[in-house]
Amino acid sequence: MALERITQQSGSISRRYSYDDGDVVVADFGTADVSVDVLEDVAIVVVEDGDDEFQTEIDLPTGGAEVLINNGILTIMEER
């Protein structure tokens, strides 16, 4: 999962956490309007903040992942 794509393009705060049962990536987009669509093994993230908008694709792990968005916080949990 490309954490750098999220941080560089939006100025968001993002982190990767590794646990015994899988990795978790969390990105906080603040007050921006964020949406995410999952197509097979890719998460497409669209961020709209006023007149600014960007879209990025995040490759998901081959074993599968759960992708959630809640109050501007994107969470991707790798399934092991």
What layout of secondary structure does this protein have?
Blueprint: H1 3-10, E1 13-19, E2 22-28, E3 33-39, E4 42-49, E5 52-59, E6 65-70, E7 73-78
Task: Produce a short descriptive summary.
This protein has 1 helix and 7 strands; from the N terminus they run αβββββββ. It has 80 residues and is mostly beta strands. The protein has a single domain, classed as Sandwich (Immunoglobulin-like).
Provide an overview of this structure.
- With 80 residues, the chain is mainly β.
- The protein has one domain (3-78): Immunoglobulin-like.
- Helices cover 10% and strands 61% of the residues.
- It has one helix at residues 3-10; strands spanning 13-19, 22-28, 33-39, 42-49, 52-59, 65-70, 73-78.
- The strands form two sheets. It has a four-stranded antiparallel sheet with strand order 1-2-7-6, with helices on one face. It has a three-stranded antiparallel sheet with strand order 3-4-5, with helices on one face.
- The mean pLDDT is 81.
